[in-house]
Amino acid sequence: MVNVIGLGYIGLPTALMMASHGVEVVGTDYDEELVATLNAGKTTFKEEGLDELFSTALNAGITFTTEYQSCDTYIVSVPTPYDKLDKKIDPSYVVAACKTVLDVAPQGATLVVESTISPNTIDRFVRPLLEEAGRQDIALVHAPERIIPGNMVYELVHNNRTIGADDVEVGERVASLYASFCEGEISVTDIRTAEMTKVVENTFRAVNIAFANELAKVCRIGGMDVYEVIRIANKHPRVNILQPGPGVGGHCIPVDPWFLVGDYPETANFIRLALQTNFSMPEYVLQRAYEAMKEHGITDSSKVGIYGLTYKEDVDDVRESPTLQMLEAQAEHLGGAQMKIYDPWVETDVVPNQVHSMDEFLEGLEMVIVMVGHSQVKGKPELFGNRILIDPRNVMGKGKFVYKL
Ligand SMILES: NC(=O)c1ccc[n+]([C@@H]2O[C@H](COP(=O)([O-])OP(=O)(O)OC[C@H]3O[C@@H](n4cnc5c(N)ncnc54)[C@H](O)[C@@H]3O)[C@@H](O)[C@H]2O)c1
User: Fold this and answer.
1) CA distance 251 to 146
2) If we measure between CA atoms, which residue out of 11, 54, 214, 191 comes closest to residue 110?
3) For the CA atoms of the chain, what is the radius of gyration?
4) What is the pLDDT of residue 87?
5) Which of 49, 98, 177, 221, CA to CA, is 20 to 30 A from 157?
6) In the CATH scheme, what architecture does the domain 236-403 have?
7) Tell me: the pLDDT tens digits for 301-340?
């Protein structure tokens, strides 16, 4: 039996996927409300294909509880934020979960940390727990996750995976557990390589996005179309530049690269600069909007609205979102009235001045900053009438009053 610990964006779909493929699974989360929701037959976030997967897993016998189970394999999928001051990983959730696992795990159990962790986290923070508890019988494994919100169910099945273990036999055993549903290639390696590989993957994307963002700024000063430049440059067989945008959000790309900056502050300079470039974008967009307001004689910020609160299109996750970063920049540096905000994917009130329908949102607006390219509006500028559009995602097409980055 597998006990999946932490039933958030990653743990829940993983638990459901295993259960749907013949593995006996119990899902555990210490959040009583979340467990009650799952036990009432409802999923806890919106994701393409998740509800169907949930029904299949329920029929296959998955159960949810706040209690840790006695079983042969544990998969820990709890948050791994970074410390905002020293930029190092905050391993406290992983440590707390692993400690509780050790209290209940039978002899010879396998403890898989699926959370994203900085290289050396298992050796520095988890292995000592085994030593303190006299539980060297427990096999440690790191199995990082690569799925992208919005396409999680597909990617869980089709992505390649990495499994890091102390010995190959344990690694292969855990690889075959994941192979119950994963059709991708599974690379078995040592723990530190697996830890580093996952962080490197997200760092690669952060650096590439930062490059695109810097190009956007350069092209604007130089009077060039960055999208056209990138489109053509990418026709080169060995060039693949990502797209610029209003910043990076979510739980991965703006977070994981900091682990390397925190642990190697003298060396990881290029990565630090990339992150700073990405974090400069929400304020850059805001300044762009203020310039356009000036150009069009709009003096009142309440005539400007922000469409999109999530960190990417067609998901309901607002963590670290560029819109939230932009609102912070607005409050801290630029003052002015709070702009009206609408996101069709976010039903709860996350920020002041948030409205819950497109009609209510558009009323009285002369300008809209489209921070997220949800399918609702992508390629449909007519939905905004003749309002001026600030389009840092490049999803509105060209138009007389459509301003890109
Ligand atoms: N969200 C993503 O897109 C994504 C992608 C790849 C990897 N990851 C990584 O996966 C890990 C989990 O991320 P997430 O987005 O699922 O987080 P999340 O916040 O959505 O979910 C974490 C869950 O763990 C529970 N939890 C925390 N401590 C616990 C404990 N001690 N015992 C029981 N339950 C506990 C919380 O209540 C929460 O429900 C992180 O390391 C993240 O970096 C996330």
Assistant:
1) 12
2) 191
3) 23
4) 87
5) 98
6) 3-Layer(aba) Sandwich (3.40)
7) 889 999 999 999 999 999 999 999 999 888 766 555 678 9
Note whether 333 and 354 are within 8 A (CB).
no
- Number of residues that this document lists for the chain: 405
Closest protein CA for atom 30 of ligand 1: 97
Domain positions in the chain are 2-189, 236-403
Say which DSSP state 333 is in: I
DSSP 116-185: ---TTHIIIIIHHHHHHHT-TTSEEEE------TTSHHHHHHHS-EEEEESSHHHHHHHHHHHTTT--S-
Ligand 1 atom showing the smallest separation from residue 146 Cα: 6
Which tens digits make up the pLDDT trace of 331-384?
766 555 678 999 999 999 999 899 999 999 999 999 999 999 999 999 999 999
3-state secondary structure of 217: helix
Tokens of 35: 């467990």
Measured CA to CA, the distance from residue 156 to residue 53 in angstroms comes to 12
Q: Is the CB of 312 under 6 A from ligand 1?
A: no
Q: Tell the CATH topology of 2-189.
A: Rossmann fold (3.40.50)
Cα–ligand 1 centroid distance for 323 (angstroms):
22
The burial of 74, by beta-carbon neighbours within 10 Å (0-12 exposed, 13-18 middle, 19 or more buried), is given as buried
